[in-house]
Specification:
Layout (H helix, E strand, L loop, with lengths): L10 E4 L5 E6 L5 E7 L7 E4 L2 E4 L4 H8 L2 E2 L2 E2 H7 L3 E6 L4 E7 L3 H13 L5 H19 L2 H13 L13 H6 L2 H11 L6 E6 L3 H11 L10 E2 L12 E6 L5 E9 L5 H19 L4 H8 L8 E7 L2 E9 L3 H15 L6 H18 L3 H12 L5 H10 L2 H8 L7 E8 L6
Parallel strand pairs: 2-10, 12-16
Antiparallel strand pairs: 1-2, 3-9, 3-10, 4-5, 4-11, 6-7, 8-9, 13-15, 13-16, 14-15
Helix pairs in contact: 1-7, 9-14, 9-15
């Protein structure tokens, strides 16, 4: 099935400064601009010209905050004066900057690119940002679910960067300096992998000429190479317990799966297949959850979280239970011994149809569509390929993945209310 993500094909070209540009004519009144930088919290070490560099956890997020600092003040004010909405966010893989609006589009694009081409880091504004980000981190330090998920990552991962929170820890933030930020900026904010996406009622030729006029001279770009992650296949700790300020016990099950292929399409499919597999077995509509609810072992259903970075997939599900130890027995027995009876063609077809519907509906939101288009393209995967892979997966693909899951990939965490602790 051919999917038309946009009504008109993107016009793609490179500027002399190495920036990849995607111009997309859209039937909208508003224009959307997104710049993607290939720097996320996943980057903890890399090489440039044979020299190895180490990154303080939380640096990508810190840099996202500080990039809005200019000699003229906070760049947000500049965009506001132009009538444009600005935003930014950091993920495990990248940092994205967006603006959108109805007018002053070219002025907004120039302001955005100027902001991303230059820095205004001082010892003073870096130190003041440390206070802001540390307060942001401390807001989550006592959150029970945050603590449980961090504990799960520690139980499962030996040295993978996914162990690091996107914002880092308060101790990490204190190590960040003006010089360390500049080093990252010079390597990644000038990288040949960065990209600019413009979608809206634009004149393609006029916009291309305008962008070319901003960067008339060729610039050599650094090409940071990510250091490979050597993460063992087995988890660190198969089970553990903790006591938290919660009203009911919570059980968490995590699966760590290592994909041998480095192809982005294979990584995407693996994440998709794991999600389908777990929803068929432990999803809200599954016979297993219905049975556990009837037996009183589960309060509601399971919440799922899945992350695929590099070649490491981490799947975690959690549920409140008044009988977490008993539920744990059922969960592990079902996954390791009885799962095949839940991998039914009819259930798979219903789930697949629902997932495709939700995915296509999500793409109706223009900003979501542009974000996903940029996210995939940054790592050599088209949004069309991603969508088509959903249509192409089969129940047998899910079953094949299931047979690759072994006990040493699984970790269990049971969190108890702190008032149950005996001293």
């Amino acid at each position: 099935m051919k999917i038309n993500v946009f009504n008109q094909e993107p016009v793609i070209f490179d500027l002399p400064n190495g920036l990849h540009v995607h111009l997309i004519k859209g039937q909208t009144k508003q224009t959307y601009i997104q710049v993607d930088i290939p720097l996320g919290s996943f980057v903890t070490s890399y090489e440039v010209d044979g020299k190895k560099f180490h990154v303080i956890p939380g640096s990508a997020h810190f840099l996202e905050h500080k990039i809005f600092a200019t000699e003229d003040g906070d760049a947000f004010h500049k965009f506001h004066e132009l009538g444009l909405t600005a935003n930014a966010h950091t993920t495990y893989r990248s940092t994205s900057y967006t603006i959108s609006g109805y007018k002053h589009i070219k002025e907004g694009i120039k302001a955005l690119l100027d902001m991303l081409d230059h820095t205004y880091f001082t010892n003073e504004n870096v130190e003041s940002e440390k206070l802001i980000i540390s307060e942001e981190i401390s807001m989550y330090d006592d959150d029970p679910m945050t603590l449980m998920y961090q504990k799960m990552y520690d139980q499962m991962l030996h040295q993978h960067p996914l162990k690091n929170d996107i914002a880092g820890t308060i101790d990490d933030v204190q190590l960040i300096s003006k010089d360390s930020l500049l080093e990252l900026f010079n390597h990644f904010y000038k990288s040949p992998k960065r990209q600019l996406i413009i979608y809206g009622p634009i004149d393609i030729d006029s916009m291309k000429d305008y962008l070319m006029s901003l960067y008339p001279e060729r610039v050599e770009c650094p090409n940071p190479l990510m250091s490979p992650v050597d993460e063992p296949f087995h988890v660190v700790n198969p089970s553990d317990e903790m006591y938290l300020n919660i009203s009911l016990p919570v059980i968490m099950m995590g699966i760590k799966y290592q994909q041998t292929s480095k192809l982005e399409i294979d990584l995407f499919k693996t994440e998709l297949l794991m999600l389908f597999l777990m929803r068929l077995i432990f999803g809200q509509q599954s016979d297993f959850v219905e049975k556990m609810q009837q037996m009183g072992y589960i309060v509601d259903g399971f919440d799922f979280q899945i992350t695929m970075e590099d070649q490491t997939l981490v799947f975690i599900m959690d549920a409140e239970s008044e009988n977490p130890s008993e539920l744990n027995v059922f969960v592990q027995k079902t996954l390791l011994k009885d799962a095949m009876k839940y991998l039914d063609q009819t259930a798979f077809d219903v789930l697949k149809k629902a997932y495709i519907g939700n995915y296509i509906m999500a793409l109706d939101d223009i900003e979501t569509r542009i974000y996903l288009y940029g996210k995939y393209h940054l790592y050599n995967l088209s949004l069309e390929e991603a969508i088509n892979s959903i249509y192409e997966i089969t129940l047998q693909d899910v079953i094949n993945l299931y047979h690759k899951i072994h006990e040493d990939m699984i970790s269990i965490l049971i969190a108890h209310p702190i008032d149950e602790k005996t001293y």
